[in-house]
Specification:
286 residues, oxidoreductase activity, five-stranded parallel sheet, Aldehyde dehydrogenase, Aldehyde Dehydrogenase, Chain A, domain 1, Ald_DH_N
Length: 286
């Protein structure tokens, strides 16, 4: 007997759940040759607002976790992604039309980046913080703290690696994320959300929107409860207008990055999503 295929439905990922867009809209995802692959949810303004609400609700828990615990969770993401390696290779081959070897290299690098950033969770404060010399009987210590809710336009020319490279550094210090995935290659973003949902990452820490960055990004840029805006994948948008919209709420903005490896792993990508807190404490005179 011939089995009927069970096609996958690609939804959004909001607050740890997988809802359809509240608008009911979808868009077709096709191969480079024009063949139909799947329908994906076309996120609306309401979806973007719901994503920010979910991200804000998750800030205290994620930022309040120990750095060691965050590192364990991010490493678990790498473990689960490794276990679904073949699925991601197949999706990338279908979406991007690249060779299996190139798709395999992309998945391998995505896993390695999760591991790299996981290793920095309990070390970054030692590198970015410092004890400041002051006059008088005081300790003066500067420590990096998370900015809060980070809205990200992911690199648009990569289905998985660009997405991971944009999300992971924001999570290291305790930020939560609302990310607009690649419009051309959105399927791996929802598959990655499935990995996140089964990797001990609390619901709401990462929220994934699929659809049109040109439509969604302005709503996120002007949202009063977004603390930072990463435009790494917004080079083809009017990103100056997005920066101006973000300025209304004094939102920190990171500009677009170009090149074959935008959002390459670096301590600077972690640092740009932190605020420096300086603490004074008196020295004992005994």
């Amino acid at each position: 007997m011939t089995r009927l295929a069970v096609p996958k439905t690609y939804k959004l990922y909001l607050g740890g759940k997988f809802p359809r867009s509240e608008s009911g809209r979808t868009f077709e995802v096709r191969t480079p040759a024009g063949e139909f692959l799947a329908n994906a949810a076309l996120a609306s303004r309401k979806d973007a607002r719901d994503a920010v609400v979910a991200a804000r609700g998750a800030v205290s828990g994620w930022a309040g976790a120990t750095a060691y615990n965050r590192g364990q969770v991010l490493y678990r993401v790498a473990e689960v992604l490794e276990g679904r390696h073949a699925q991601f290779v197949d999706e990338i081959v279908q979406q991007e039309g690249v060779s299996r070897a190139a798709a395999t290299a992309q998945v391998d690098e995505a896993i390695d980046r999760w591991v790299w950033y996981a290793g920095w969770t309990d070390k970054f404060a030692q590198v970015a913080g410092n004890a400041n010399p002051v006059a008088g009987p005081y300790f003066n210590i500067s420590v990096p703290e998370p900015t809060g809710v980070v809205a990200i336009v992911a690199p648009q020319d990569s289905s998985l690696l660009g997405l991971v490279s944009a999300i992971a550094p924001a999570l290291v210090t305790g930020n939560t994320v609302v990310v607009v995935a690649s419009e051309r290659f959105p399927l791996s973003s929802i598959s990655l959300a499935e990995v996140l949902a089964t990797s001990d990452l609390p619901g709401g820490v990462v929220n994934v929107l699929t659809g049109s960055p040109a439509e969604i990004a302005p709503w996120l840029a002007s949202h009063q409860d977004v603390d930072a805006l990463d435009l790494v994948g917004a080079g083809d948008l009017d990103w100056v207008a997005l920066e101006q919209a973000a300025a209304e709420s004094v939102t920190r903005v990171s500009w677009p990055e170009q090149g074959p490896d935008a959002a390459a792993p670096s301590l600077e990508r972690i640092r740009q999503f932190t605020e420096t807190k300086t603490v004074w404490h008196t020295k004992s005179l005994l």
